[in-house]
Amino acid sequence: MKRFLIFGISLVALSGCDFLGDSKAKVEQQYLANNQELEQVIEDIRAHGLAAMSQSAEAGTLASCVAKQLNSDPMGAMIEVEGALQDSANLADLMDTITGLADQELSMESLPSLLQAGADTMSYLKTLLANYELSELQQQVQTLVEQGQSKSEDIGTHLRNLVEQCQ
């Protein structure tokens, strides 16, 4: 009996650490496997960056359309984070984190609240801040709020809606 209890606890612990379950990246790969041209476009964007892809994509191609859609959206740069197309994190929570960055000065006291946001949120922030100044990013977040796009969408749904407009 003790053996089964230990096995059960280990199973729960391992699944919580994502050893047994599919990670977002694996689920994203399954999603992209249904459209290999889109998969190649996303891989190219991640390898070379969204700006480079926008400049080099031929007009009228899927790559051009996807790059245009992502560039026109304030959160489009998040596509560069692996697994983003299947991320169920709430877009409103990410936007609240971005808005909160201006309200607080980065210090040792503010680090715990940023760390609570999670590693995925930090990856998105890093990607977005590499593309935008904080004030510009906050303005774009405000635009999304005004358009009502943040109310019920998760990050993956938001990004999938952008790229699926090109198919």
TrEMBL record:
Domain of life, per lineage: Bacteria
Name of this protein: Lipoprotein
Organism: Pseudoalteromonas rubra
